[in-house]
Structures are given as structure tokens and as C-alpha cells.
Amino acid sequence: MQPSSEPERYTHGHHQAIVSSHARRTAANSAAFLLGHLQPGMRLLDIGCGPGSITVDLAAVVAPGQVNGIDREPEVLDQARAFAAARGLANTTFDPADVYALPFEADTFDVVYAHQVFQHLARPLAGLAEAKRVLRPGGLLAVRDSDYGTMVHAPAEPGLDRWLELYHQVTRANGADADAGRHLKGWVEQAGFDDVVASASAWCYSDDEARRTWSELWAVRITESAFADQAVAARLADADELAALAAAWRSWATRPGGFFAFIHGEVLARKPGDGTGT
What we know:
Elements: H1 16-22, H2 27-30, H3 32-35, E1 44-47, H4 53-62, E2 67-71, H5 74-87, E3 92-96, E4 109-115, H6 124-134, E5 135-146, E6 152-154, H7 158-173, H8 184-190, E7 194-205, H9 208-224, H10 226-233, H11 239-254, E8 259-270
Parallel strand pairs: 1-2, 1-4, 2-3, 4-5
Antiparallel strand pairs: 5-8, 6-8, 7-8
Helix pairs in contact: 7-11, 9-10, 9-11
């Protein structure tokens, strides 16, 4: 992707419904591919930590090591601090920061983790270059992003088909790539990391409660979040169509046989060098 001449836009925005959904993420459901590589005493950076629910899980694993969480939205960091305080974790720090200009010295971290970040970047290679800069030689990169192109649902619902088309249109207008999950391995290789290992895992919404929660989240995003504003501003949809798409999501959630699933691309890689200075 080419760099954008305008400030980047976060497609989802920070509507409370979105932040609340992010707060339900855990290391178990969002960082399982990384957990076996963590050890007590490590220093870890969580890029795009959001409300911190994953971050605090990782902090518990590496304690007494230090964990820094960064996000560009200061308000969600207050929630992250509250999560850490509720868990009694004193080894976490949360600060606003830009993924393209991380406020840390080179060779600082043993691990850099980013969940659902690179799908929103117009310059993913620049973001990976910063992640590599702050990793120590031999340090571990762990990135995970969804791939909207793999999203499937049943029973058939034309409104969900149009929603997925529109989502891709909005992210392209933002200079981002909704299908980032499939590209992570190539991007990490281009960024000059070693020992690149790719994997995938799925999220699935099939029971009644999961489908209701997932569909309501998207109905709200479609009509009330930054996504709605961006779709209208780019003349990709109007308010009437967005309302119809939200109704389609809510209708789908009530239909028998409902199923929705998609994969995430996951990559582990090392910064060149063994950290010994030899």
C-alpha cells in the first residue's frame, strides 16, 4: 500500500460498543500463538492495546517483567489502567503513542505484540520497521490480524453480503487492507525479520448468544460508529442503506441455523541478531 497524504483513519472508531467488545478479548482467545514463548522477566510492548484486556493477561505471564501498552486513543487507556489495577498488576504502563514513532529506545523489548493493528495501517511496513527497531536483537515479534475476505455466514443474507462489500470499500478508502491477515507473513518478511512462522486461527459465532452479541455489535457499528460516518462521507452508502444493513444483521441473528466464522493470520518472527553482541 502506498502512504496516504492524509492522516490515517481508524475504520472502527471508539464507540463504547466497540471498546466494550474489545474488552472481552483475552490472551487465551487472541494471543494463544504467543503464550508458549513467554517467560517471567520479559519486557513486552503491546501496540494498539485498546482497553488492555489482553495486555494485562500478558503482564501476568511475564511478571515481574515490564509490559508497556500503547494506543493512539487516550480515553481507552484509562480503561486499560483500570483493568491492571483490578488485577493488582504493578508491572504495566499505558501511554498514548503513534505506531510509526514509538517513544522507546532501540533494542528495548524482548517481545512486541500487536493484535488487529496492521489491518488499519496505510503503511504496514513502516509500522513493522518501528516494531523491529524497538525489539532487542533476537527479540520476538507476534502479530495477529483478521481477514475479512474469509468471512462466511449461513443462512444466506444479502444484507450481510453487501455489508462485507461495503466494509472493504470503506477500508480501501481509508488506505487500509481489511484482508491483512493473509498478508502478514509477506509483510513481516519484507520488513527484514528472521525465522518467520505463520499460522491461523478462527473465531466462530454459532450459538444464540454469540450470534446476538456479534450481530448487535455490527448493527451499532454500521449506524453509530466512525465506520458509518466514513461510509457516508466517502459516498459509499447513505443513512437509509446503513439502517437497512443494520436491520439485516439483527434479522440474521434470529434465524435458525445461524453460523458466522472467519480466520486470523498470525505471525511469529525474530529480529535479526542473537542479542549477545557477538
